Amino acid sequence: xxRVLVLMLLMIIPALTGCAVTxxxxxxxxxxVMGVDKTPAGGIDLTIRIPRIGHGDSGGEGAVGKGEPYLVxxxxxxxxxxxxxxxxxAAARELNLSHLNLLIVSxxxxxxxxxxxxxxxxxxxxxxxxxxxxxxCEGRAGDFIEGQxxxxxxxxxxxxxxxxxxxxxxxxxxxxxxxxxYYATLSCYSDPTGLWGFPDSGEQAAAAVIETDESSLNxxxxxxxxxxxxxxxxxxxxxxxxxxxxxxxxCLNLLTRRVDAFGFEAxxxxxxxxxxxxxxxxxRRDGDKMRIDVSVSLVSENPGDPAGAEAAVARAIxxxxxxxxxxxxxxxxxAAKAAARFATLDDWLQYDxxxxxxxxxxxxxxxxxxxx
Amino acid sequence: xxxxxxxxxxxxxxGDLNENIAYFRNLLHADVNSDAHFRPFMAGGTRxxxxxxxxxxxxxxxxxxxxxxxxxxxxxxxxxxxxxxxMERVVExxxxxxxxxxxxxxxxxxxGMTAVLVEGADAALILETRGYPARSVDRTTNESVxxxxxxxxxxxxxxxxxxLRRYLPSPHLVTEAMTxxxxxxxxxxxxxxxxxxDPEIVNRLRARIxxxxxxxxxxxxxxxxxxxxxxxxxxxxILQTERPDRVAACxxxxxxxxxxxxSPCALVMPVSVFHLMHAPDxxxxxxxxxxxxxxxxxxxxxxxxxxxxLYIAMTDYHMHLIPMSLLVSISEARVNVPFPILVEILIMxxxxxxxxxxxxxxxxxxxxxxxxxxxxxxxxxxxxASIISPILIIIVAITGLGNYATPEYSFSIALVIYRLFxxxxxxxxxxxxxxxxxxxxxxxxxxxxxxxxPYTEPVAPPRPHNPDLLLRLPTRMQRRPMPYAQQPNWMExxxxxx
Amino acid sequence: MRLEMSRSAASASLIAALTSRxxxxxxxxxxxxANAGWMAALLGLxxxxxxxxxxxRLRPPARRALALPLLVGLALxxxxxxxxxxxxxxxxxxxxxxxxxxMLPLLAAILRCAWLGGDALGGAARIWTxxxxxxxxxxxxxxxxxxxxxxLMPWFGxxxxxxxxxxxxxxxxxxxxxxxxxxxxxxxIGFRRLLRGLLVSTAxxxxxxxxxxxxxxxxxSEAVTRFTRIDTLLTNGRAPLxxxxxxxxxxxxxxxxxxxxxxxxxxxxxxxxxxNVKEGACMALGLAAVFALALLRVSRAVATLKLAPYLYHxxxxxxxxxxxxxxxxxxxxxS
Lengths: 372, 498, 335
Hints:
- By secondary structure, chain A is of the alpha/beta class.
- Helix content of chain A is 31%, strand content 27%.
- Chain A starts with a helix and ends with a strand.
- By secondary structure, chain C is mainly α.
- Chain C contains 11 helices and no strands.
- The interface between B and C is medium-sized, with 28 and 39 residues.
């Protein structure tokens, strides 16, 4: 018996042909950013940005000044699958999407009715890293990627991650990933969001400090990049139906999570605020209507009575909620709280939260404590 | 053939001294053997003959305490001269006995004792006169410690037993003398603490030693292979140590030790895989330090087995698990390397083992050259020639360090072989293969036994035990039962009282 | 007999195997309970207790007779596990490799494990439970910022019917594995020890199912595939990349223990049914059956989708019938 077992094992070992498909690490084309565009003929264009390996300047620290450390490749096809296949050919190496940092789609594509199907198709791409940030950009995504500069003189990947962490901490952008978008399109809770990206025309990046006018939160620091990320793309049933600017995005963030530090104009002065705690959201069913009570706790660095600021922040948040109601979009995460008022998913689906949200009574209370 | 010849041929002494001498001369090949000495002399009118091996027995002891004593102290009371009367009234050597059987007499003589044959007696007097040269007790060479005792076993069985007695001066310390080897016996000593060691385990070991049916056994290492539970298993099932303090600690825990003549190490049984991870000085350091160092050691061992396999699995199949910055660095470093990662790793591993083995065998005078060869060839030239990538040197270096952190030599070699297995599994099937390899290794380890006791006891199967396995917990928690000891035992009773 | 296990080995193996079975069953195979999978695990425990109690009290002849339905269930379920393990590896890295090549290493591992014997498997399971706890602790600590408790709402998920359906499946796995543990134990294992195994496995599996549910919302779209479920489990898009390593190790380790336990138990029960056949032959027979089912993909079609809900009913009915026909109240060892 022992001999038979040994023989069987010996026969199995050569059959383990797993190593036949091995892909050596240096033979991969690691896409860091991928853009998806719709062609005028209805096809799909894919653009990727990959580090150049083997030239000693593949995006490593200090790469700036040694020449372009990245390659931008574009390929098109009748549909996503074909475009991806063509992209494989264009890459000349094994295309690897497992380190994708950013997935950028053009506004034209995101607002199309066939975008939900495309989301599912993208999500099932082999080894695509779903935690990639999800961006909807103005114009062509391919052009957007071409214009993307490295900001910190380091890897594009760490550069973008650092930039997004910074923006998200200050509330300028939502912390949206492609996974969030994908899961939300398959599920029945709140609507997903995306980051909004736009080519920097120079007008929107006018100042390096917070301004005191109405659109202070839309101010951007001037950077070397000609591409900016600010604001939120709103989705309903997987289709982009609107956007929030930087100030509105801050209000959205105040309703969904903690925001580290931000400035807010009220009573003729700028209040340096931060979230003390995540917002407290309570949902109650009032007949067929849902009542949502949101309590936002903030801390102010400035001395003085914050009553005016409290009212201003509450007003701004309510305006954003109203805007979303008008668009019939609920990106605030209220759905999970509201769902708790139902026994089963069937009941919840029957209630049809997305249709009922505009009727919901959302009450926002803001409390600002002064830091000692 | 006369009666005397018949008796000697049957293995017992006859009363004829000449016959006996002739017989022993024949057995010891005295006509060609220059160091076998037969010294006839007269005492009290009786003919006697001293038989000894030059160099093995001390000439001085023979002259002073046998020949001179026999010449001086023979009186009326001693007569007639018999081995018994010599032992009781004449000879001034403490350790002596009479023996009738020729094989036993012969064994005694070849191991350095002296036999005194007496005319008319059918027994010989065996006297302890061993005086062969032996290495003095010295520092251990393979099991160095920072804290704790520094002395190690030597090649002399007697010295080794003395060392153990010094560490465990207890009347319960039993050292059973045995021999192994059917043609050329090797002297052994089975050591245990009576009333602590499980009698069943002691009997099992006795039975295994009795079952050994080989002409000769060259030391403890060879003996260990003959009595272990599963010779085909990779991991050692017997702890081989050259430290008397470690053996003493094991004996106090109810384990059994085996000392062999001419072996500077002891065999300790039964052992668990956890024993092989423990360093001798763990017990001497405070529990916090001991736990920390043990964690480092266990991490080193795990790295030693799994790191190269993980490297190849992640770089070949699971690039997504490597941060992008590192991935780019690895890719850049590998661009000019002509070999696949598997070949690269195997080259480096082979080079590493080669240097290791060369370092062990190399004469000390030229040992310094080895460092130069290793550093230059592996460290610089190989990278410069793009035979290997720099990152791999780091991987192999960490792996080697982890391996050297393994306190038990045999265990560390087993880990190296496991590492090769894991490398192949990782190369063929990535993390999936490594998980399968890890599972097979764990199951194999759990299926092993040491002297009939499960190798992973007391964790699997679970037994009440001292928590001193992976971590050394505070000493107040270390009063639980000893898994190998008989229950109850006096050692535990004392611990409980303490 | 080498394939049999000691009480402690059977208990440890039951915990390691059943935890994995419940977890992968309720997250990958059964979408019935939606986000109330953890409730289904608890319901499964409640439903399975009477059957397991009956099984533990059967007299030896009745227990031998019960080996047949258990064997059928084990072979199918082991095949199903083999297939799922190979498929998950295919999703993870080997999408270009034929499933048979991913299953063959598993066969080698199971052969090795069966050769080492039941006690070795039990020992490995005991060590695995500790390692698994450490791995899951790392996973949970990393995932902590990403958990969304709101996705557990509504509490009853797909509703009573869905929870019941998933609960019956979970009960089927409980009965199958606990009955097998009792069947291959060389001593009387006793109900209390089985109960402890069921309780621990269910508690851990229910907790993990709930945590997993907090990482991805309940999918209500019909477009959700098995690939999506595996993908959200192993390479969850809401978790960082480096988190995948402990998760992958935990996943494959758990699956290996499950399939080895099921395969070794199938071999041991074959031996029980055919006492005159050599142990080696029983091993070959049992493993051949498992792999034939896995390679023919019968396992997915039948065991997962159709057999699993009936497993509970069939085994319970068998235990009850044997109790009535052949008698129960076996002398149980103190557990």
